[in-house]
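Predict the 3D structure for this chain.
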Amino acid sequence: MNRREFLLSSAAFGALVLAAPSVFAQDKLTILGSVPSLGFPFFVHMLNEIKAEAATQGVNLTESDGQNSATKQTADIEAALVQKVNAIVISPLDVNALAPAIEETVKAGVPVVTIDRRVDGVEGILAHVGADNVKGGEAEANAVVAAFPNGAKLFHLQGQPGAGPAIDRNKGVHNVLDPLKDKYQIVFEQTANFARAEALSVTEAGLAANGKPDAIVCANDDMALGAMEACAARNFTDVKIYGFDALPEALVAVRDGKLAGTVEQFPGEQSRTAVRIAVAFAKDKTEPKEKLVLLTPIVIGKDNLDKAERIGETK
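Done. Predicted structure below.
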């Protein structure tokens, strides 16, 4: 063997040694956990619960922050496929924009479990675990009806267009209020894209144009907290504001009487259930008992704060 052949042989051996850990790591399953954006506290909690369940199940987790970009979340999925992950647990940012990447994943034989946000129109998704957001929207609207039996003037802050939960929560709210529109008038309805700062400005515009409402129904807690700030600036502290997600900050606001209520959809249970389903199939092809697992949301008020999943995180 000449010197050049020796050096080439040594380099090849070195590359093999460097690659060995990733080869042996395949003995331990790896899953991708992907959420739309860690800029939202809800998804921080969801990814933390995915991480905790992955550790309990003894599998590696690759974490993905979609950064509120369908392009970024798609790229993360494609990178995971190159890395040959064994399963993907994902809350897709947009039900339509993520469909091609999820379809590619299914065709590659990698099991996909969606959480919180489903993707319709893609065959072969292993399971979806989420809340029944239509029922959640209905529960939120029914709480308003119960609080104002004689009728009310309402604002409605909708979620991000194209997001499954936003679509379903909006449907649920209208299922209840539309037949009662003679008594419960939505005088201002606009998206604030699930964002607190946007909800603040949107609510300010609604108040300027329509005056003080009796209640504000919001599709998530971040928007409810933004609406709360806008009302407080005008000293409209008696406006009943309802959120959705039961974030710790919102639970504190409910406890202190600043929010009227928030809808609990049990995101931790969603996340853990999704990981268990994905790992069971990746390990030995165990099919889930149900392809569609929907938890029933409940409204959290002062009288049932103990039912909130994250009550232990409040101060």
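The chain is about 45% helix and 20% strand.
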